[in-house]
């Protein structure tokens, strides 16, 4: 458990350093984004699609099979406040979030709108990572699921915040 928390703290420290450095300097040679700049990757679109697909990935099992999803995520049903209808609403919310996010990835959406969305979504994903971390600390969530979720959500949220605040 301690190593998982240390990993999450280390990731947050690195992200904090990256954001502080990007605010102070135009020199970001330590960031992988610069090494792939000439590859033609649209990072904003890629991150929005990744966010949308991730949301749909949480939403489908939440809507269709809420009880098995809860059993996969949590250590004990008695340890969480869960019921099937709430699980279905959780799934529906994530599906709507995913669909909206995929729509924002469209080439027809203005870059400024995408930047604003990435700032908001980045904060949401970091909030989700924090919830996973809290569940891990309180032993409500399965270790392997909680760590995988928290690491992915931290990475996605951090990348979205970085791109959202980055001036192209």
Largest sheet: none
Order of helices and strands: HHHHHHH
What's the overall geometry?
globular
The tally of helices reads 7
Radius of gyration: 17 Å
Helicity level: over 70%
Structure class: mainly alpha
Work out the strand percent: under 5%
Low-pLDDT stretches are 27-36
Amino-to-carboxy terminus distance: 39 Å
Average pLDDT value?
82
For the secondary structure, the number of strands is: 0
In short:
This protein is mainly alpha-helical and 168 residues long. α3 (43-64) packs antiparallel against α5, α3 (43-64) packs across α6 and α3 (43-64) runs antiparallel to α7 (143-165). It has helices spanning 2-24, 32-35, 43-64, 66-73, 84-104, 111-137, 143-165.
Pick out its properties.
168 residues; mainly alpha; 7 helices
Overview of this structure, please?
76% of the residues lie in helices and 0% in strands. The termini are far apart. The protein has seven helices and no strands. The chain has helices at 2-24, 32-35, 43-64, 66-73, 84-104, 111-137, 143-165. The protein is mainly alpha-helical and 168 residues long. The longest helix is centred in the last third of the chain and has 27 residues, at 111-137.
Question: What secondary-structure arrangement, pairings included, does this model have?
Answer:
Layout: H1 2-24, H2 32-35, H3 43-64, H4 66-73, H5 84-104, H6 111-137, H7 143-165
Helix pairs in contact: 1-7, 3-4, 3-5, 3-6, 3-7, 6-7
């Amino acid at each position: 458990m301690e190593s998982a928390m240390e990993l999450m703290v280390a990731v947050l420290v690195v992200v904090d350093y990256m954001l502080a450095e990007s605010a102070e300097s135009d020199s970001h040679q330590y960031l992988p984004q610069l090494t792939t700049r000439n590859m033609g990757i649209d990072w904003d679109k890629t991150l929005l699609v990744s966010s949308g697909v991730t949301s749909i990935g949480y939403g489908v099992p939440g809507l269709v099979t809420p009880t098995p999803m809860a059993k996969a995520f949590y250590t004990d049903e008695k340890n969480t406040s869960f019921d099937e209808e709430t699980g279905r609403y959780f799934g529906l919310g994530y599906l709507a979030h995913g669909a909206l996010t995929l729509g924002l990835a469209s080439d027809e959406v203005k870059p400024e709108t995408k930047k604003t969305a990435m700032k908001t979504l980045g904060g949401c994903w970091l909030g989700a990572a924090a919830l996973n971390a809290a569940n891990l600390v309180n032993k409500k969530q399965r270790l392997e699921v909680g760590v995988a979720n928290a690491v992915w959500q931290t990475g996605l949220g951090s990348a979205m915040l970085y791109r959202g605040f980055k001036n192209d």
